[in-house]
Amino acid sequence: MLAKVLSATHLGLQTLPVEVEVNISQKGFPGFTIIGLPSKSIEEAKERAKTALVNSGIDFPTAKIIVNLAPADIPKEGSCYDLPIVVGILSCLGLITPPKEKSLFYGELSLDGTLRHTKGILLLAIAAKEMGIKNIFIPEPSANEASVINGINIFPVKSLKSLISHLANVEIIPKLNYQPIGNLLELGQADFDFSEILGQEQAKRALEIAAAGGHNVFLQGPPGSGKTMLARALPGIMPPLTEEESLEVTKIYSVSGNIPAGGSIIKTRPFRSSHHTTSLVGIIGGGSPPHPGEISLAHRGVLFLDEFPEFPRSILEALRQPLEDGVIAISRASGSVKFPAEFTLVAAANPCPCGYLGDPKKECRCTPRQIQNYQNKLSGPLMDRIDLQITAPAVEIEKLFPNKKQKQNLETSESIRKRITKARKKQEVRFSKTNIHTNSGMKNKHVKEFCQLSPGADAILKKAANIYNLSARAYFRIIKLSRTIADIGNKERIGEEDIAEAIQYRLRS
Amino acid sequence: MPRPFNIVFAHKVKQQNYQTGQKGEQIAKQFLEKNGYEIQEQNFRTKSGEIDIIATKDHELVFVEVKLKIGNDFGSPEEMINAHKIAQIQKMAEYYVSLNQRLCQKYYQFRIDAICILIGLNNEKMSLNHWRNITG
Using CB atoms, which residue from B108, B109, B135 is nearest to A31? Predict the structure, then answer.
């Protein structure tokens, strides 16, 4: 008596079909063995399957049961094989007849026979569609994740009992309705509104440009000047996710188990904030099996690193490659996976250990050596990749209590976001035929194609490159930044003032 | 020369244990026969251990481990059968199967059971539990 049930395993963001073969033999000693490179969590599926069956009112067979997870040479992990194993046992016993169309079973069982929230459902649904599988049976608490995929039948399974009566055509489980992603997307909410932030006009402008074009920002200033507050207000002006972007982001969150039970897709641009004690693997990704890090979880969103120079040198330098390529390849003995990591880096730092270097009122107490050590943490190649480097000076006390007229001049996040969304739309149209999304993602060939400089702008840039010894990368990055500034100003051609503004952001004083 | 005391004592305890075991196996045998089992062999012994009773019923070949305890003072007889003991029985059972191919073709489904008997200090039977398929 042999039964074959289809399931799947995830390798990074890749999904591979797994055939769960169950054989029950009445000869010899009774036992329950799982083969096919199972991890510890799959070994434990034995006890879950046994107890769940008994608690669903089915006698567990006294026989030799062998479960093979094919292909047998790929290591498998996770609790998602509970359901296919039980379905295999039940069809071996003749208690159910598996559906005629190709069907995929996936999910973790609870001891009482109900199904629990399992990670990786969205990837499973996408893969099922690509493989041409008609039905997928998934746990009810995670079914919402799959509902954004059209063209497959999604059956949210509450418990083993309901699945058995469904397959016996007694009580059909209603299919989950398709939900277009567009209806689910929302605008992000921030802790602070931009109108609450007083002073810091230059920093606000820089964040606006960063949000519009996806450029990296470095904020430097004394303690208490509002660097963290500025960064925390950023989610409030970030443009909404597009449908395609939302799917990309949700894939990463789904496979790493970051979507809560009942959740569907990621609706807003991610804003991730990491403490400087986070480990290298936590930020970059890694482990066995490879797990996405913070930079991948911030894909299409913002990664905020407060107290930037406090991060270990190894982490800061490891950021260089993903900042340039937008992907991180994690290679380990067990295999190599690629996670997307196209994030906007927002970093904040003090100018020196005491924090008051260059402050007009308070004296800096650091020795030159201390200052040098502190600033050496931020290496040239790393800072070269940050387009917007701004100083957020301490705010004068008079500015903290604005009069009515000054209050009216403070722009709200909402109106800034409108401008940014418009600029993003322009970029979407511009890059519709390419695979990039924002100005910051342009490669050099795109720069030549899409960024036309006015003669005056060209002259300014060439002069600046000579005077300030700009690297080739910095040269192209300035053009990309000026493209965004021109987009915000709704101009087709990059003008002199755009390029001049872009250049001044690069020169950290 | 008289034997040292502790050797005499140990000898007596061993003899007592053997007798207890015999009594338990007798009770278990009667129980199995009453329930329609046919006893194939008793005390199948090799270098590495012993199977108390080997019985058959329908298509099943059953290896039975018998545990008898007198009095309730030192825990239940079930507690005396641990993972090590079960592994030992399993090994022995597999050895028995390899020796008796013909019997095993007639009775093709194998099982390991435990019969746990508790008797009181005055030899009155207090309980008998038959645990089917302790390895599955």
Answer: B135
Q: Where are the beta strands (DSSP E) in A12-152?
A: 14-25, 31-35, 64-70, 103-105, 108-109, 115-116, 135-139
Q: Are strands A64-70 and A31-35 parallel, antiparallel or unpaired?
A: parallel
- In the prediction, which pLDDT does B1 show? 54
Question: B109 to chain A, minimum CA–CA distance in Å?
Answer: 5
Distance of alpha carbon A323 from alpha carbon A343, whole angstroms: 8
Structure tokens of B51?
Answer: 């199977």
Contact A93, A24 (CB under 8 A): yes
> Under a CB-based contact definition with an 8 Å cutoff, are residues A27 and A62 in contact?
no
- Contact yes or no for A488/A419 (Cβ under 8 A): yes
Q: What is the dihedral of CA A402, A408, A413, A419, to 10 degrees?
A: -140
Strands (DSSP E) along A194-282, which ranges? 217-220, 271-274
Residue in A26, A27, A30 closest to B136 by CB: A30
The full length of chain A comes to 509
Give tens-digit pLDDT for A67-102: 999 998 888 988 999 999 999 999 999 999 988 889
> How many H helices and E strands in chain B?
3, 5
- Which amino acid is located at A80 in the chain? C
Contact (CB<8Å) B133/A26: no
Assign B54 to helix, strand or coil.
Answer: strand
> Tokens 């996976």 identify what position?
A337
| Residues A228, A348 contacting (CB under 8 angstroms) | yes
Distance CA A351, CA A206 (A): 18
Contacts of B93 in chain A (CB under 8 A): 29
Of A27, A31, A62, the CB nearest to B108: A27
ipTM: 0.70
Distance from CA of A26 to the nearest CA of B (A): 6
| Structure-block tokens of residue A439 | 């100005």
Smallest Cα distance from B45 to chain A, Å: 20
- Average pLDDT value for residue range A442-465: 90
Separation of alpha carbons A169 and A164, rounded Å: 9
pLDDT (tens digit per residue) in A243-274? 889 999 999 999 999 999 988 899 999 999 99
Provide the pLDDT confidence category of residue B124 given band limits of 50, 70 and 90: confident
Task: Quote the CA–CA distance of B39 and B41 in Å, as a whole number.
Answer: 6
Estimate to the nearest angstrom the gap between the alpha carbon of B7 and the chain centroid. Answer: 27
Structure tokens at A250: 């949700």
pLDDT of A479 > 50? The answer is: yes
Cα–Cα distance, A343 to A441 (Å, whole number): 10
From edge to edge, which strands make up the β-sheet containing B38-46? B38-46, B49-57, B60-70, B109-119, B125-131
Q: How far apart are CA A236 and CA A238, in angstroms?
A: 6
User: Which chain B residues have a beta carbon less than 8 Å from that of A27?
Assistant: 108-109
CA angle A465, A470, A475 (to 5 degrees): 80
pTM above 0.80, yes or no: yes
